[in-house]
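Bug report

Summary: structure tokens for HotDog ACOT-type domain-containing protein differ between web form and batch submission.
Environment: batch mode, default settings.
Steps: 1) Submit the sequence below via batch. 2) Compare with the web form result.

Sequence submitted:
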Amino acid sequence: MDLNSSPSNNTIAVNGTIPVASTFATATAPSDNPPPADSSGDRKPIALWPGMYHSPVTTALWEARSNIFERLLDPPRDAPPQSELLTRTPSQSRTSILYNFSSDFVLREQYRDPWNEVRIGKLLEDLDALAGTISVKHCSDEASTTRPLIVVTASVDKIVLKKPISVDIDLKIVGFVIWVGHSSIEIQLEVTQSNEEGNDSDSVALTANFIFVARDSKTGKAAPVNRLSPENAHEKLLFEQAEARSNLRKTKRGGEKRDFENGEKNRLRALLAEGRIFCDMPALADRNSILLKDTSLENALICQPQQRNIHGRIFGGFLMHRAFELAFSTAYAFAGLAPCFLEVDHVDFLRPVDVGDFLRLKSCVLYTEVHDPDQPLINVEVVAHVTRPELRTSEVSNTFHFSFTVRPEAKAMKNGFKLRNVVPATEEEARRILERIDADNLNEFFRA
């Protein structure tokens, strides 16, 4: 079944777009109102599936692809793997979801932030859910006699906010597969919204690229995925660009931290000079600067079953959601004014996070830029650690880099506003700052 051509239930609109409804309007507790059994006899009720409690988008997506997700929840035992790879086009995986903010009050309130815009953290969670559904659709062979593949989020290439997203205007996300490797799939997503003036034409508000990898559900090893055949010049260009990014990731993978040359050693010393004054002569330190460690925040949580995905592991979108909320708070506490999100840089999901894991999120402001007084930049790093107290171990699961600026209306109300400069106290902190600055400069170069 194709989401855009042959709908099998009422979740999919006539035009091929999946509408999103508020969870309060559509979901009921299983014990209060058990869903009636359908013709399949033993179909698991939607309300009892894992991962159904955190996002209205996830509910809509799972309903729309219920036949595939049922197989993932209860795969055929001892079924053989897919014997022959299929060739699919990008249009076959193309999926849209629509947020009816203008007419659904409850949905609107679920996504509203204090500035009457969409909560970016919840949107990141939804993007991951949609990308996962698209990757499952691409990998499926539509056969009930073979065992389905497991697809997991491997990385997020970049998420860029191009304009503020109002919570009062209908919102649409469109995504499709743009590239596949042996076991990797890249999905491009675009968030569009019409202008507040009532312009009928939608404009892109946010772009994101997700990379998923496929695993055999029985062996856990990398599994080949269906081929992709771009149909037009634009799809071929997207495929080539994604191929180049994949090759670049391979050259960087497994590489150790680079050795700093003489010129860079001078940059390290210059960064450390002010930090040493803070440590050794704090009374003489620059009052327009602050130590990196003094910008840090931290929170911790036990990962709960309600946060798991269909494979029983913690949903990647949930991790991004929590990391964003901490990064936003860090930027807010640092600047003293409400921040405005700009982008998330490349994120690698280094190790899976399981139900019951003790997750610690640690954040800090790595550096600031004030070259453009109208848009000062705050770069926030969030590191997620999976901690096992009983084993006395702590491993990094993800490292996130968020860029923020200060909301113009907030800055206008505070005359003489200026961001403080962040300085390192240790060589390790100085290296992290320089590596992040160089990575951002490289991104700007390719973007130009």
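Above is the batch result. After comparison, the two runs are identical; trailing whitespace caused the diff. Residues 45 and 72 are 14 Å apart (CA to CA). The chain has two domains: 51-76+83-230, 261-444.
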